[in-house]
Amino acid sequence: MHPALGYGAALGALMMLSPGQAGAQQKLTLERVFASPDLSGPQPRGLKLSPDGRLVTLLKPRADEKERLDLWAIDSSTGATRMLVDSKKTGSGAELSEAEKMQRERDRTVAGSTGITSYDWSPDGKSILVPVDGDLYLAGLDGAITRLTDTPEGELNGVVSPKGGFVSFVRGGELFVKPVGGAERRLTQGASDTVSWGLAEFVAQEEMDRRTGYWWSPDDRLIAVARVDESGVGTVTRTAIGGEGTKVYQQRYPAAGTPNALVDLYVMKADGSGQVKVDLGKETDIYLARVDWSKDGRTLYVQRQSRDQKRLDLIAVDPGTGKGTVILTERAKSWINLSHNFRPLRDGSFLWWSEKSGHGHLYRVRGAQWTALTSGDWEVRDVVGVDEGKGLVYFTGNRDTPLEQQLFSAPIDKAGPLRQLTTSGWWNDAVMDEAGSRAVVTRSNSDQPKQVYLADEGGKRLQWLSENAVTRDHPYAPYLASHVKTVFGSLKAADGSTLYTKMLMPPSAPGKKYPVFMIHYGGPGTGRQVTNQWGGALNQYLVSRGWIVFSIDNRGTPDRGKAFEDQIYRAMGSVEVADQLKGLDWLKSQPFVDPKRIATYGWSYGGYMSLKLAEKAPGAFAAIIAGAPVTNWALYDTHYTERYMGQPQDKPSAYPASGAVDDAVKISDPLLLIHGMSDDNVVFDNSTALMAKMQGAAVPFEMMVYPGQTHRVGGPKIGVHLWKTIERFLAENAGPTPP
Q: Does residue 517 share a domain with residue 400?
């Protein structure tokens, strides 16, 4: 679609219901956007199929308290729905340990949630392990709940072993195993303030998407356990300033260029005996990226990533001796993206995901032989199931357009043919049972909130699990008549790359010019803005207040191939800024845009981008909002920062050039800086460094800080306060919007 023609043809397009469907039309308010029930309708999380496929389980927000999650089950045959565990009737109400709070913060899908945020099916499908308020409970399908632990210290990473013989967990930095019906036993020793067993270190949780530090063999016989020594890691003083006082934490935080945690891997029997240290190589400054067992439990597979992230080794380990053999090595000139797509097969071969072609694709590896299962200028995202009997692998990908994601199947022994199992026009995610016989598909698009359905292995919908139709009783129904459609378009970057855009616009009026609210993230790895997914009610609220809402995905963002993403290598704050300014120039050329009333907003990497835009193009924006921004990459963690920037000593000029502090004196547009005062991800020092620089140069700005809030500043009341603060700032600097 040509962007100008596409937008021009769709100005003011509305999604309408018949008057009988929609009910009384109401006006969106910020209070309603952040209140319960969620305007998007049911937003299930943690979807899983029971081992026998009979039940679909999920974490479901309460209608009157959308931040609190309960455990529900849906019968996959009848569709009958029932609550399995009521979080308000289970648990002690005790305050979570700091370690569990931080684990939840690492998991963006449950950050800020209370109640039940995770669970684990027993392999026999008769019970579910549920952590609540720091203790573990075993919930039967008949409603019976058995408390397994009752200690002052919280239990972390609780799971049921693959054969169902044990429950395991980490307490006080030590790994414990509890035989079903027996007494718990501590398997490890030596934990301290700096040493832990069975837990993932900070960068593994935050940046590597590895949330655990121990792995059961499939026969319940052995456990691989990580030992993490953080004694060499530097500390940051994280002052958790809250409304009722201040707590000070000395947090181990490996800033770019400084020592990481030392991670060792051991294999031991289920009773803790026979400990064997795994040989991870002579180089200790490495990342333990992934750990998996072979189907027969005779081989432990370890993915070892080099400190510079340009090499990834797959090591086959003999669990009896700890000796390892490198069986595969990936290399890159920039960096290697990790995935969860490694799948051992029964014959000793395995499925492997690689970007060696320039795009992420699947391969079957037998010794030195690689067979490409997928190929082309598109990306395979996640393997969700394997059916070895039928010789099929199931995965998500964006074959037809990066704006959407579909579920596909493909043979596991040769290239193609691919079969698309979901409907175009949607962004689809899926989970499958162990046999790959059924799938739970979650989908949405820009006009339909999240829906969930059960499908067979061919993609045929068997039943709705949550149709979430926006009809009379839906929370969003009173606002649907004024819902504005999202219009997708594209622009060309300086190198000819296609940059996808999206825009939401108020109903058009001849000759009227509108203010624009640009929302950006812009960073690598995650956070794309331009996808055909449900965007929630906040953007619709902004449109109802008279704003055009606009986003562009710049070079450096994921899902477009390595050449597109690699352009930010050792050059953060370069092409991303140029591409956002390309979008700005296009907006200013449109007859329906007021070029003097364009504001830009971003959070985290997006907050950093806000600052870089302000510094690169003084006078270009009416207002700039930077939330929780990284301002000095030397303050951010090793695995993320060094992946894209290298270590500070590698190219001394790269870090200052990519930072936002030195050039802060160039900022002339009105700036609102926002930060949670307990942020342990982008630490508050980032904002104080910027503040000091601007104050020292007499450069004015506004600031809003949130006591007790972490990287996710939110909640029913805090969210309202945050956006009312932004609205007031916009009204003062970009002109008032309609009441």
A: no
